[in-house]
Fold:
Amino acid sequence: MESNRSFLVQLQILTKRMVFRVIRRPLAELPNLIISAFFLFVYDGALGGVFGGAASGTPFDFAKGNFVNFILPVSIVSASLSGAASGIYLVEDIESGVFKRYQSMPISRWAIILAPMNVGAFRVLVQSSLILGIGKFIGADPAVGNIGFLIVLSLAFIWGMGFAGYSVAAGVKSGSSQGAQAATFLFFPAIFLAPTFVPREALKGWLETAAAYNPTTYVIESMRSVMVDGWELEVLFRGYLSAGIFAAITLTFAVISARKATEKA
Amino acid sequence: MLAVDVKNIKKTFISKKDTVEAVKDVSFQVKQGEIFGLLGPNGAGKSTTILMLTTLLSITEGNASILGIDVATKDKEVREKIGVALQDTGIDNLLTGRELFFTTCRLWGYSKKDSEVRTNELLNLVGLIEAADRRVKTYSGGMKRRLDLGLSLVHSPEVLFLDEPTTGLDPGSRRVLWDEIKRLRDNGVTVILTTQYLEEADELADRIAIINEGLVVAEGTSDELKASIGGDVITFAFDSDDDLENAKNILSNTVQEKNELRLTVEDGASKIPGYLKDLTGQGVEVSSVSANKPTLDDVFLEVTGYRLEGSEESPTPDEESDR
Ligand SMILES: Nc1ncnc2c1ncn2[C@@H]1O[C@H](COP(=O)(O)OP(=O)(O)OP(=O)(O)O)[C@@H](O)[C@H]1O
Ligand SMILES: [Mg+2]
Structure:
């Protein structure tokens, strides 16, 4: 009986259970996915005509003839927000008392907390991959070749885990799923205080300043570099660094708050 | 060895706003193979006591051990030995009963194969085999409680803690659960349960501790507790308030309860004629009189000074029903 009691087995069992929960509520997956796809289609439809091939030879040729390449990173960042579900999953268990039941069993508390993070990560990968697939289908073609898709996905993953950490920390701290849900409001400043529709140089005044402080900016620019321009290692590195720092900070907060939540009162 | 040994435990919740002494001083001992009932009203400190004993809350002061294992210092070992069904049932609504049992078996370390076998055993034991493949969301309150009980039995615990296992159930479902709990006891499991129902403590528990405002105010078997009152309870009922007031003055040491007066005396039945003579002699009209052996209700009144409200009515469904 002891053989099954290792941390990894517990984590696997708890993750599987969490996956069941997600599968049983398929509709909950749709909004974020639809919003992300919507961005892709609407912005490409609205702006692709002007800033796509038609901009060739003008100063506005920042998409280098393929606006899908340029706008896809915005959709991907939006899709990566699906990581924020981690906190919601965890808080649901706290609210329902399932969390307490697990605590009364000889199970590692880290397995209990990591399971929803796992599922959040999985969600980020699935949603981002779907959006990338749609992007490719409507004409995305990375300047560095298909490996560009993988780079974009890996950035989305790190970024998504940052949101997962944020939602876990916010959810556990507020102790309610509304608290975790509120984390998704970060969506607006994250996406719109950034060089969403045009490059940073084209932003003006306060928005340019805000974008400079928004880590999303560097993630989007990093993704764009491989999609539009080719290998620009410094830009690429800045993206990974921003996403990595963001994730490191929020995950640290998540661990601290989760440890508090699992301590005996 | 004692199954549970609790010595002067105390729990104080300290927050910025205030300090709550949820459990002030609770001690009791439970022998192996016994059903022990913690009887008390809302807010008495029952759940807090259970949470401390099941390692989910720290103990502010005092000592507790389960099967000789110290609860405060060896929580992991204690968790191996105990089964727990808390008052706020932590049940995953989106899964089926079978999936819940299977997952719990796996978490307790059973192999996949053994988990399947054990799942079926337990589904049968708690009478949920027919509903096994339905999502728990569709279960009735009684079914959820039985599921909860079953989940706490997965690893065949030696000591089982049940916090208000029948609150919110109709009398029929309660009886089903009582029978299951008794069967467990007969198989050697020690059961510590909390309840706010006198009848449940009376019927189910081998021994009872009455807990009130964080203190154990009486302890013993149901018969011992009743005997501790000494004698019989004579109840006089009156139709008019004047009669009641007059009677109060004539008889000493009575306890009033609405339009009734109660008196605890040795050998009650033989004393009724004498009391009636005294009362009617002074013009007091008595509408009815009876002598009874004391009930747990009387014991509760005696030790706490008030009655456990609503204990005779069937309970109202609690908030858990909408889960
Ligand atoms: N975490 C907490 N913080 C502050 N006070 C608490 C906490 N938990 C319980 N209490 C208080 O401690 C007292 C005892 O609560 P407890 O839940 O143990 O009662 P109970 O006997 O289980 O009642 P019930 O029959 O309603 O379940 C109550 O006054 C309650 O408000
Ligand atoms: Mg309680």
About this structure: The radius of gyration of chain B is 23 Å. The first strand of chain B starts at residue 2 and ends at 14. The mean pLDDT of chain B is 89.
